[in-house]
Design goal:
alpha/beta; 3-stranded parallel beta sheet; two-stranded parallel ribbon; 7 helices
């Protein structure tokens, strides 16, 4: 993202330092609001007895700030950052580490994401996956289909509560 911001700025005759670009991106990422249906869907899953774990490539501090600013902290049982692993998703080891950290087998986990690379990485590590097909997001065409494909998290939650 950092390089992309600097390139867009350069294309528009603007010079932005790496430090300034990091600050702009960091502030923007940590103040993103959740999609409209997210809180209702998370509450529905929590009330159905699911353990909800945020699992990100972002830093632990960045995740904490983002969730606090978006009002999502109370919906999650755990917040995991790959920071501890030294490898980013979609490395298989990161998903296996996340399952291990939660004390469960990979096949007992389901990663729900709007990034095709992320759900593919999870499935490659033996996790189940649901894809939230947000506008502009695509599944990786050579990957197997995810268990659930819906265009918002509420629709995914509606399916998952039938599993309980």
């Amino acid at each position: 993202m950092l390089a992309a911001l600097q390139m867009v700025a350069a294309n528009n005759g603007i010079t932005i330092s790496e430090e300034n670009a990091r600050e702009v991106i960091g502030n923007a990422m940590q103040n993103l609001p959740p999609h409209p249906e997210v809180k209702e869907a998370l509450l529905q899953l929590k009330q159905a007895g699911y353990k909800l774990v945020a699992f990100t490539n972002s830093s632990t501090e960045g995740l904490k700030n983002q969730f606090e600013n978006a009002g999502l902290t109370d919906y999650f049982d755990e917040q995991l950052s790959v920071e501890e692993t030294g490898k980013f998703k979609p490395f298989t080891e990161t998903y296996l580490w996340g399952a291990s950290k939660m004390g469960v087998n990979p096949e007992e986990c389901m990663l729900i994401a709007a990034h095709g690379w992320d759900v593919y990485g999870a499935m490659s590590a033996g996790l189940r996956a649901a894809f939230v097909a947000r506008p502009g997001q695509q599944l990786f065409p050579l990957a197997p289909k995810t268990e659930i494909i819906e265009n918002d998290l509420k629709k995914v939650a509606d399916i998952l509560v039938t599993y309980q």
